[in-house]
């Protein structure tokens, strides 16, 4: 089929429009996720366990890591860290746990979303073990203690002496029922 | 006659020059009480005057033309319509001005972002429609609700000076210390803003943001939520009470003692009257925004409590406690287990079961709430008047 | 051309089935004016509630619906369709084309709109009310916490988007392919240029808006978690996507206005536009910059320092091409032979007031200062200064400039000047005090406020009512002009230039069936 110039313009413009729609889903969203990873935007940490590389513990610095627990709306579990902060040297493993209890008479599934502040420190706070890597089912009236192991990277910028690891607990019972326990990231 | 005329003139002149009146008519950004707020105010004024200068220049040329190059004055139109030199000039000069402006702006921005070495960390959580403050490591945490009465909002009582800018429990902080705010939201996005501190940070559900301040002058500083967060976005103010360090310490002690006292009260035997009085207070503080003073709510979003089965049926007392403690998923009803003490919860449930003609005569005691928290059952064993 | 088809068909079906660019232009203009009145009525509700402290007229949940609908209707229902209407009427006549390139699609892109807005407005009567989350509909307020009617809101936005994209494709196809011989790109009137750039912006960003609302739809109904942190998503992602659309959108609403003013000022200064080429380049650079500044709407959201600095600098840069445009307009007036007919009054007011809006925009671009300005009435003042005396005054200017061409009658000039002065005073009275209350600490989108803001809010409300009522006068002037009035010449303005003045007034139903020769 031979197109006249006007038709060519129209086809090009229409393709651009469709491409821009696709751009939102298949470029903007993944790009945003990459950007978050690179810049520590929103303090979003790595969703995979960290495999520690052997490196000397940096005895010269002591870093305070604070822990916060927030319940999102509709999440009625008791949720709190065993200690409100730890002081560790970079390279050293810090261990603690979070306690959860489901006071309701329904089996539920929770998901803790981690976030680090300042954002600049995000890439330097590693978790070798965390309850946030998977969703956490909890039966009615059930309770459990969930371990957390962290390492502060030796390369943490010198000016940061204190960082905060915050967890927000969401009730994802409905989402879990719907989607199964598959990997959760923004996107399709 | 003459005297009155003179008074009128005095008043008018006073209106024009009285600094008091201009202060009432706040027309500019507050300078604030921190070093940072001063730098930001300075930036704001610098940029303002630069734009004024440019504006005066441009409009002068324009109004010169408007006045003197009118056809009615016999002006003949020139034909010029291009000048590369002029174009280059008025591209590069504004650019240079921008560069000059960018330097102090960047400096201040870097300062805003430097929350290192804070002395005190406070977690700020935005809820629909209140703030929670948690002093990290101090074991002190509380909610801060609007304390302006509904009567003032509905114009049945004169409005006080701090109308809509007052809370039941202000955020108390020391002066001269670097305070780091860790800001997050528990439902939708809010924004924590106190103009005098020049701190505004979005409270985003799931994520944590930080900001900081170091207050120079003791005083009470008021702000508001700055991000549309639903119905009562305009009714969740922030009040910061900055005090000298020793008074701050004293206040912290007081807070802890208060918590102890509440624990004791839980074990006390409560009469229905006591519970009703306290319950009404709690209700007007935390429930009234949605369920309304007459208990009729705003259906369908906010159901009525008056005549509602949950508040009148005897076998629904357990459910009543459950809903108050843990909220209702997928609705506007939030969990109050961390916001209200057992005493307040017992009081407000008792109030709801007996107000607006819900005359159940039933009493729920603080110990009932404690038991329910423990094993999710209501037995009614402590109720004095309830069991008929 | 054949002689058998002279004029329009008769009756209602003429308007339903029309493929004539002038008919469709008129439809767009009438529709946008109806929406302007509706959105304006909502603004009146807002101003009435804010007339004094306390809740008097509406409850907060309805107030939020009013602010949301006011914004949506004014942006998508009033300003954008008005510019499309002007484009339909004027672009073919300005470039010597017989009609738009795609007349049948043109009919479609208009007729989608009434349905889209009927759907949108009907949400107000649904259970739980209409959209109440602001015209920016930030998640999760609009997703997990939105009213049930949100789904209909999403469909309405989709329909508006499709309409805009079709309109934009039509404009591009017309401008690129139907220009009369000799009408090179760099000879096109600036209105055509600005619309060409606008059309490209529309094609680039309306699909992004469609993507954003589609993601909302999927989050609400299909269990995805684009914006839900609990499912691995991010509410801040919504803001990035929205403003990636939203900032170019702001320029979509102002670029055609630049075009109109660039036609009117030379006409009444009787002097060619100063720096035509630089005007074209300025428009293009503004359009380009609009894609890399979106996060300046999000300075308080918690963006890393580098990002904050980048977006601050990029935003400040916009002042350069915008400044060039203002300087060019002033240089055009300088040493001209000026008269002040109604179109010129609106155009001059545009230059002054848009510049004031530009200044507050520059202030807002300074990130640290924006921490104080963000989401206050200072921002409300800023964007109303660029949209009311910017977009809307330019539309009025355009209508008063071309109305004799459309109707063949001269309008009542005395009344039109009353319309101008009342609008000018009312508008400034409404929006200037908002700068003050904003700086003093009044957040936007609140139904009630502390007494310290009372005096200025009362002034704003009085100004708002004045501005609102004045627009009924405009309706009267236009209707009067359509029905009666002195016969207008082909070129009623002494200094006007362009092909549109070569055809008689009123412009015949079909113009330039044989393309004119452009020297």
Automatic annotation (TrEMBL), chain A:
Keywords linked to the UniProt accession: Copper, Membrane, Signal-anchor, Transmembrane, Transmembrane helix
Its membrane topology: Single-pass type II membrane protein
Membrane spanning stretches: 12-32
Coiled coil: none
Pfam families from the UniProt entry: CtaG_Cox11
Compartment(s): Cell inner membrane
SUPFAM superfamilies assigned to the protein according to its UniProt record, in alphabetical order: Ctag/Cox11
InterPro entries: CtaG/Cox11_dom_sf, Cyt_c_oxidase_assmbl_CtaG
Function field: Exerts its effect at some terminal stage of cytochrome c oxidase synthesis, probably by being involved in the insertion of the copper B into subunit I.
NCBIfam families per the UniProt record, alphabetical: PRK05089.1
Family per similarity comment: Belongs to the COX11/CtaG family.
Protein name per its UniProtKB record: Cytochrome c oxidase assembly protein CtaG
From TrEMBL, chain B:
Translocase found in the keyword field: yes
Source domain of life: Bacteria
Keyword Heme applies: yes
A Pfam family reported for this protein in Swiss-Prot or TrEMBL: COX2
Reactions it catalyzes: 4 Fe(II)-[cytochrome c] + O2 + 8 H(+)(in) = 4 Fe(III)-[cytochrome c] + 2 H2O + 4 H(+)(out)
Lineage: Bacteria, Pseudomonadati, Pseudomonadota, Gammaproteobacteria, Oceanospirillales
Main location: membrane
Record's function text: Subunits I and II form the functional core of the enzyme complex. Electrons originating in cytochrome c are transferred via heme a and Cu(A) to the binuclear center formed by heme a3 and Cu(B).
SUPFAM superfamilies membership: Cupredoxins, Cytochrome c, Cytochrome c oxidase subunit II-like, transmembrane region
Domain named Cytochrome oxidase subunit II copper A binding: residues: 117-254
Protein name as catalogued: Cytochrome c oxidase subunit 2
Name of encoding gene: coxB
Cytochrome c domain residues: 274-356
TM segment ranges: 47-67, 88-105
Residues in coiled coil: none
Record EC number: 7.1.1.9
The entry's keywords: Copper, Electron transport, Heme, Iron, Membrane, Metal-binding, Respiratory chain, Translocase, Transmembrane, Transmembrane helix, Transport
TrEMBL record, chain C:
Annotated metabolic or biological route of this protein: Energy metabolism; oxidative phosphorylation
Catalyzed reactions per annotation: 4 Fe(II)-[cytochrome c] + O2 + 8 H(+)(in) = 4 Fe(III)-[cytochrome c] + 2 H2O + 4 H(+)(out)
Regions that span the bilayer: 27-48, 68-87, 108-126, 152-178, 190-218, 250-268, 280-299, 311-331, 343-363, 383-403, 424-442, 462-482
CDD domains to which the protein is assigned, alphabetical: Cyt_c_Oxidase_I
Localization of this protein: Cell membrane; Membrane
Domain of life: Bacteria
Keyword Iron tagged: yes
Membrane topology: Multi-pass membrane protein
Protein task: Cytochrome c oxidase is the component of the respiratory chain that catalyzes the reduction of oxygen to water. Subunits 1-3 form the functional core of the enzyme complex. CO I is the catalytic subunit of the enzyme. Electrons originating in cytochrome c are transferred via the copper A center of subunit 2 and heme A of subunit 1 to the bimetallic center formed by heme A3 and copper B.
PANTHER family noted in UniProt: CYTOCHROME C OXIDASE SUBUNIT 1
Family: Belongs to the heme-copper respiratory oxidase family.
Protein name: Cytochrome c oxidase subunit 1
Species in which this protein is naturally found: Parendozoicomonas callyspongiae
Taxonomic lineage from the root: Bacteria, Pseudomonadati, Pseudomonadota, Gammaproteobacteria, Oceanospirillales
Gene (name only): ctaD
